[in-house]
Design a protein that fits this description.
- This protein has one domain.
- A two-stranded antiparallel ribbon has the order 1-2.
- By secondary structure, it is mainly alpha-helical.
- The chain has 7 helices and 2 strands; from the N terminus they run ααααββααα.
């Protein structure tokens, strides 16, 4: 193969890799599911709830009404995946408040917890694009 043929081949590979939404969809779903399942647990070693919160809502951090968990979603657009929530409560739970609520982040820990599976999902999608198994 000459240099022109090699350049054409690489251009074809780049085009195939450019749209990997199947792998991104699977990766985004993994993170969404992980984040939702962490709500109401102490999976990420959050500080314990205080006695007042436990008496009022039970010992289920961030769960309360289930609205926060229900607001977590994902969307894949082209070569980008967005996973998150539009809930204002999520911001305060993630960063804490001046009123004594400690930070209890859940989106980034969910992504970190699923790092290996995310890499695997995208790798499998790339291999599948080229007819591999």
């Amino acid at each position: 193969m000459n240099l022109l043929g090699l350049a054409v081949a690489f251009a074809g590979i780049a085009k195939e890799l450019h749209n990997h939404s199947e792998g991104l969809e699977k990766a985004a779903q993994l993170v969404e599911t992980e984040a939702k399942s962490a709500i109401g647990s102490y999976r990420y070693n959050w500080p314990p709830l205080g006695p007042t919160a436990v008496a009022k809502h039970g010992d289920t951090p961030l769960l309360d009404t289930g609205a926060l968990r229900g607001s977590i979603e994902h969307v894949v657009e082209g070569n980008s995946a967005f996973i998150g929530t539009n809930s204002e409560i999520a911001f305060w739970q993630t960063h804490g408040t001046s009123r004594g609520i400690p930070p209890r982040p859940f989106m980034m820990p969910a992504a970190i917890a699923k790092e290996h599976e995310i890499v695997e999902a995208i790798g499998e999608a790339v291999i599948k694009k080229f007819g591999g198994s």
